Amino acid sequence: MSDLVLSLFPGIGLLDRAFEDEGFTVVRGPDLLWGGDIKRFRPPAGVFDGIIGGPPCQAHSRLAPVILANGYELAEDLIPEFTRVVLEAAPQWYLMENVERAPVGAVEGYEVDAPLYDNRWIGGEQSRRHRFSFGTRDGRRLRLEQTAMYNPAWSPRVCARGYLAGGTQKKRHRRDGSRWEIRNSPGRSKAAVEEAKRLQGIPPDWHLPGFTVAATMAAIGNAVPYPMGRALARGVRRALAE
């Protein structure tokens, strides 16, 4: 089994924990949240079996025009740093997470399977459709599971900027043509943090000491939902077993 995994942009470590709970051994790389700098990181070659991670997505987000219109600068696109580390570390496989509009994480010498995957497709309440670039030397495909039924409950996604997007819309359509009502966004508050934790699969007793509510919400919003992370880890396992 290809068990030793390097995690890039680990943040609060939800994706790492998901892979650990599926039997992988995860080593965390540098992260801005903890004062690290990916640009200074040089991995050893041939040590890690796999690499996982989600580079900051703001540059490719649907909210990018809104951020610019409000006078803010977009966070730097660090997908090139992710692919650089893959090239230097030369693992057997890698899995890059990013938003739907992000480019595929292509690396020379690897064939990439880049499906879209939504948290609701495995029964989650939160709508969170992202792209996952799975690169291997021999073109294996990411074997992702999907439930037959959608969760009747629906929630807008927890966003990296510390709020739940989509709450201003009135209705959305399910695939079968029926409609569901969208709840209002809870905003930034301690109650919003607890709701975001629930939607992301974070235990109620988890907290970030010294972080403001806004900073905590942003950290939570950057994470891959824990149940979704476990489904991804299982999909990697199935792909590697073929």
Average pLDDT value?
Answer: 85
Query: What fraction, in percent, of the residue positions are helical?
Result: 25-40%
Q: At CATH's second level, what is the architecture of the domain at 4-147 and 225-241?
A: 3-Layer(aba) Sandwich
Q: Per CATH, what is the topology of the domain at 4-147 and 225-241?
A: Rossmann fold
Supply the CATH superfamily name of the domain at 4-147 and 225-241. Answer: Vaccinia Virus protein VP39
What kind of sheet is the major sheet?
Answer: 7 strands, mixed
How far apart are the termini? 11 Å
Structural class: alpha/beta
Q: Compute the number of helices.
A: 6
How many distinct beta strands? 9
Query: Residue ranges: pLDDT <50 for 5 or more in a row?
Result: 166-175, 178-185
Order of helices and strands: EHEEHHEEEEEEHHH
> What's the Cα radius of gyration?
18 Å
Highest-level CATH class of the domain at 4-147 and 225-241: Alpha Beta
Shape: globular
Strand content: 15-25%
Quick summary:
The chain has 242 residues and is α/β, with parallel strands linked by helices. 25% of the residues lie in helices and 17% in strands. The protein is built from six helices and nine strands.
